[in-house]
Amino acid sequence: MGTSTGHTAAGSSAKTGGCRSLPASPTVKASVTAAYRRQTQPPLTHIAPVKGTFYYGSCGGVLYAGTRFHLIAGSTEAEQVALQDDGAAMKYFVDRTGAGWRYVASDSFPAGPRGCAAIAQIPAHLAALWNDCQSTAGHE
After folding, report:
1. pLDDT, tens only, 21-51
2. Are 103 and 86 in contact (CB under 8 A)?
3. What is the distance, to the nearest Å, from the Cα of residue 75 to the centroid of all Cα atoms in its chain?
4. Would you say 118 and 9 are in contact if contact means Cβ atoms under 8 Å apart?
5. Fewer CB within 10 Å, N or C, the chain?
6. Is 108 exposed, middle or buried (0-12, 13-18, 19+ CB in 10 A)?
């Protein structure tokens, strides 16, 4: 769904400070995953967003997303090693004016107590709508 449903109902959006938390379609999730696959070394082709960790929204016409990834069936040993080192960290993405999703930042490991509020590339109003990307049961 792409929202932190602690703040919004499934399928709805919340708005604050010109930012909106939005439900994420399967197409959005696939596009964000493809953007991360393109930048990983070694390539991580057998990955998917972790259920309950996908955040999606917009501020001033710019789209933002954040998620954690996990391995899916068919993963190679190289992928397993690569994701083991980086898999627990939240990844953040931006799509400016339809230019396509681009990976822009990652949480520290372990994640800091401020969550995505500490990520400069995520607008503060959007991070607040996303409950600072603190995973809770019930979203997605």
Report:
1. 999 999 999 999 999 998 888 788 999 999 9
2. no
3. 21
4. no
5. N
6. exposed
